Amino acid sequence: MSNFLQRYQGGACEAVWDELRALGASVYDPPYADDARAVARETMRRARANIETLIERLDGMGYGFWDGVQGPRPGPPRKVTFGQRVIEGAPLEVLLARMFAEARSLSPGALTAVMVDQLHNIYRITVWPSQNTAQLMRGQRHPADAAATALFEKAKKTNPAEVAATTLAKLEQLSGIAIDALRRAAKERGAGEEQPPARVDHRKDRAWAADGIGRRRHASIG
Hints:
The strands form two sheets. This protein has a two-stranded antiparallel sheet. The chain has a two-stranded antiparallel ribbon with strand order 2-3. The chain contains ten helices and four strands. By secondary structure, it is mainly alpha-helical.
């Protein structure tokens, strides 16, 4: 009988895995298979324990996670390839303003559907930190954001040349109004909070429980 698990638990982790890899396809056959599976299970158990410890300590530090549902998004872009140019700007509203300026400088036929979509994406990333996510989950948007979003959605379904000729200026205006309005609303919500938000234990996220160690979606740390 092989003794891979016993040796692995005794500390020879690297040597055991070197030997398992060297066995090639025969690792799936007796007398190695059961012991090799036991080593793999023990490796994944230790890996999961280490990741859970890491998550617990980061939670204790107030670290920002993003799992697609809660926590801040990963850091936003500060540089975008927009048409034939690379546009840079920080903070994000500056980047968005420069993208609009570039779009308005083009001849109507040079604006593309991809560029209209990019404008919308940067707008959405810009306003996200100020969004009332509880209302968004109920399908409710701030009126200023709703107006800008509706015009973006309409623009994406319109010929880009027509958007360039008739809609860009209005899109830029509504975007600026919405960014300012959402920030004011977020500030007012913050001023009205008497208790800090409850601490989240990210080890209990649905994504972690559902996917397991091998397909961890949660640990996208921004």
